Amino acid sequence: MTIKKLVHTPDGVRDIYGTEMQRKLTVESKLKETIYSYGFSDIETPTFEYFDVFSKEIGTTSSKELYKFFDNYGDTLCLRPDFTPSVARSVSKYFADEVRPIKLTYMGNTFVNYSELQGKLKEVTQIGVELMNDASFTADAEIINLCIDSLKSLGLKNFQVSLGHMDYFKGLCESAGIDEEKEYELRELIQKKNSFSAEALLDTLHVNDKCKDLLLKTGDTLGDISVILNLKERVVNEKSKAALERLISVYETLKIYGNEEYVSFDLGMLSKYNYYTGIIFKAFTYGVGDAVVKGGRYDTLLSHFGSSKPAIGFVMVVDDLLMALRGQDIPVSVKGDSEVIYFTDDDLKEKIEEAVKLRKSGKRISLERK
To answer: What number does CATH give the domain 3-327?
Structure first.
């Protein structure tokens, strides 16, 4: 491989330096300070794990999108595509007997081998939180409110956090007699807004007209709290009704926080991560083609690692947030360039002493020979 090629990065990854790096560090610092204010503590998990931590059974990233390799013992390892399973594994090992709520936060890079045609970065920096051992709707509301406060801390004002609930869709499928395999197929069609194929699938399954109508309209069921209140009067199965009641309770709690204006609802939002079990949410803002925050409840994930704890969390993609801030002309304060002090052999002692004094006062000083 030529030197000319070696100075370039592979597709999907990049170097970050200079002012852009300073802006990134500032954004990370602001987000972490907001998270700390909610009582979260740091955790650091390995950059690579056993392949099975992210297996199909757990319901995380597709195997073909993982960076996989072998260790000296022949075990299959992979770079983490997602933090949540890693944190779940760690909590199952070190916090198995803990009965109080567990609040953890992390920051690091994730790696997903996207197709080059998707145009996505394959390595991104994520900051996230996980709240475990609390199954209440107040925990849901606290996590969503932390998401809102985190975005506000960066100066973002024009954003929406869209809420959904996995059990609403699952309840409709159960009442219609749809098995898990067909439910997943239907979910994919609804996510892709392919209503024709979704209707054809429901017809082959002989779903009654009322259930079919509710299922087909799931992808278009979005709006303010009135949408949820109206649906509550129409839905009869207990699982879907309980999901709607949970969303209403979370919304009422967010009103106490004073952040309900940032919240909307989308019952057609069905995550690709199969480990989500309850409320799910995404945050959207201008200047980015994807959600800048993704999260939800995953009450059964820890059981894959031998522990049974309810949990909810979210992740923020720092790279996308920086793009949003640029696109909305929101300034990110950075420290100025370092001040240069030149020295010669004759005044070396004097200049070093001057540099030491200025550095102690908080200034950035670069010593350079004249």
So the answer is: 3.30.930.10
